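Homework help board

Subject: predicted structure for assignment chain

Our instructor gave us this sequence and asked us to write out the predicted structure in token form, then describe one feature. I got the tokens but I'm not sure how to describe them. Can anyone check?
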Amino acid sequence: MYAADQALDASAVVVSALHNGRLIHEELKRIASGVPGVRAIIVIGSDGMLRHDSYRYPPDRIDLSDREYIQKASQAAGMVVGEAVTGRSSGVGFVPLTKKIGGLTFVAVASPYALVDMQPECADCWSLTLTMNGQEVAVFPPERRVEPQLRSLIASATNNGSRIVRYHQSIVAVSWIRNERFGLISASVRGVTDSAAADVDLN
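My token output:
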């Protein structure tokens, strides 16, 4: 997250310093390649039109003014993490990391899985990232369905924490960390023995 935030700041410097579309494209491409999980950086003008795209030159002429992540960025002082959307030109899902700088809006196009710990060493674990109000940003494995009761339990906590929870037919340990700066909660769920005593029953 911090790397993406810095990359958007660096992108703003590039756009303000260079006046050649091809050079801006190449520099944005270089910056995006240095941020894990980010596949592109795009720049949107005050009219909502795509101005620069690190993935494609020349950029497609696309009006993004109706995108919620553009609207939210205009009201925020720092980087905003949006809910997952599907790219208009790529058709691929991504999480927008957006920042308004001057009259332009800069967006790091991030893979949803860049925001979760995939925990490859644990077969009975899964991870999720939520907004502070409990909206799902990303989950891994992607086929995992997260019930509203579990999201509510995590989002309603005011501090970092953990609980032992009865969830469907299992007992799981749930732990979470709140990131107030970016408005996100990162959570991890791990199966435990069925004989464990649950603090909370979500069934």
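Reply (TA_rk): Your tokens look well-formed. For the description, you could write something like this. The chain is about 20% helix and 35% strand. That's the kind of observation they're looking for.
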